[in-house]
Structure formats: C-alpha cells, structure tokens
Amino acid sequence: EDQVTQSPEALRLQEGESSSLNCSYTVSGLRGLFWYRQDPGKGPEFLFTLYSAGEEKEKERLKATLTKKESFLHITAPKPEDSATYLCAVQAGSNSGYALNFGKGTSLLVTP
Amino acid sequence: GAGVSQTPSNKVTEKGKYVELRCDPISGHTALYWYRQSLGQGPEFLIYFQGTGAADDSGLPNDRFFAVRPEGSVSTLKIQRTERGDSAVYLCASSGGTTGELFFGEGSRLTVL
C-alpha cells in the first residue's frame, strides 16, 4: 500500500531562518511526486512535480529535491507570506488515472 | 472557466438529509477527481472520472455517496442520509494534460449537525 509521511507536522520559523520539510514515501512504481501549498480555507495550489531521483526544481525561495525514498522542500530565507500548509503527494503506477495520494501536510508559520 | 469552480462554498445540513455538491472543471479537462479533506488531514481520494464515466470509485466510503458527470464536464457529488462524520471539505480537481498536475477548486465545506 502506498504511504506518504510528512515531517514535521508543524514548523515555526523566524523570517529569514532557512529550513527543510520532509516527505517520505513508499509506492509501487512512482510516476511523480508533487508538492502543493494550501492556505486556510483554500484548495491546494500546485508548486512542483518531480519524476526521478536526483531531480531538483526551484521557485523563488523554494527548492524541491527527490531521492528514491524521500523528498525535501527547502525554504531559503522565508517570509511571513510563505506561511501555509505544504502537502506532498505521490502519483503511482497503480493509481487510477492521475489520482494523488497525499500526506497529512506540514503547517509552516513564519514570524516577522 | 479560468479555474475549477465549486458550489456551494459552505453547506450546513441536518443529520439524515440529502446533499449535492457541484464541481465545474477547467474547460477542456477530461479528468475530474473528488477528494475529501478533514481538519488536520491531507486530501483523501474519493472518485475519478475520465470523460463521463467513473473510472475509479474505490475511495467512496459507502453506498450513501454517489457522483455523476453526465456530459463529461460538470460533476455532482451526492450524499444521502448524511451523518455527522461526513462533515469535511470536499475538494474537486481536474486535469487535462500529460504532466499529471491536478488543479483544485476552493472546496465545499459540509457541516452536518
């Protein structure tokens, strides 16, 4: 059974304090690993897709990396507007269509 | 439309009542997904449509839940005899490309009293 585990559950950073969020996964035939951002009361917003180990993608202060067992979302010099819940999801070869299996998310709070 | 649209944004109902939640996907997207998200949890897969047909409904929790997509565009999630445990945010997503990226709506928050 596919499993996605995110850690930590919650993270509090001061503005400018860099850190990383972890997503560990077990899946049969990974098609892709996705990172989404979710603000309170909103739907998830797509950030990145990673397809193979060693791949990296960047967007502003965020960088996502992928190994065969886990993915990291690195946040460099975060700002208060980066506060949100970050969701990791896997798309497996056994999944119907492109259905995603999500972790529980990491709730990030960045204080001024 | 520009994005995935879901209505109503909020629905409060009483235990035992029938509820319909509507999703209007991004124009041209053939794949449509329903997810359910409880507080503090990630979205949980319910059902997937490819065109008009339900390609995978393995995530529906029981036979009180049903979804349709009669013309391959708008979809309706139907919940009969609602229970308090059905309270959650119901998210709809659509996909149309080969990248597998899902675009989500804002969700419909269902509260069963």
Strand content of chain B: over 45%
Count of individual beta strands of chain A: 11
The sequence of SSEs of chain B as H and E is EEEEEEEEEEE
Largest sheet report of chain B: 7 strands, mixed
Question: What string, H for helix and E for strand, traces the elements of chain A in order?
Answer: EEEEEEEEEEE
Oligomer: heterodimer
What low-confidence regions of chain A span 5 or more consecutive residues with pLDDT below 50? none
Strand content of chain A: over 45%
> Helical region count of chain B?
0
Shape of chain B: globular
The largest inter-chain interface, given as chain pair and residues per side, is: A-B, 25 and 26 residues
State the helical fraction of chain B. under 10%
Rg estimate of chain A, integer Å: 14 Å
How many distinct beta strands of chain B? 11
The radius of gyration over CA of chain B amounts to: 13 Å
Quick structural overview:
Chain A is an all-beta fold. Chain A contains no helices and 11 strands. The mean pLDDT of chain A is 93.
How does this model look, in words?
The complex is a heterodimer of chains A (about 110) and B (about 110). Chain A has strands spanning about 5, 10-15, 20-25, 30-40, 45-50, 55-60, 60-65, 70-75, 85-90, 100, 105-110. Chain A is built from no helices and eleven strands. With about 110 residues, chain A is mostly beta strands. Helix content of chain A is about 0%, strand content about 60%. In chain A, the strands form two sheets. In chain A, strands 2, 4, 5, 9, 10 and 11 form a six-stranded mixed sheet that branches. A five-stranded antiparallel sheet of chain A has the order 1-3-8-7-6, with no helix packed on it. Chain B is mostly beta strands and about 110 residues long. Helix content of chain B is about 0%, strand content about 50%. Chain B contains no helices and eleven strands. The termini of chain B are far apart. The chains are: A mainly beta (about 110), B mainly beta (about 110). Chains A and B meet through strand 4, strand 5, strand 9 and strand 10 of A and strand 5, strand 9 and strand 10 of B.
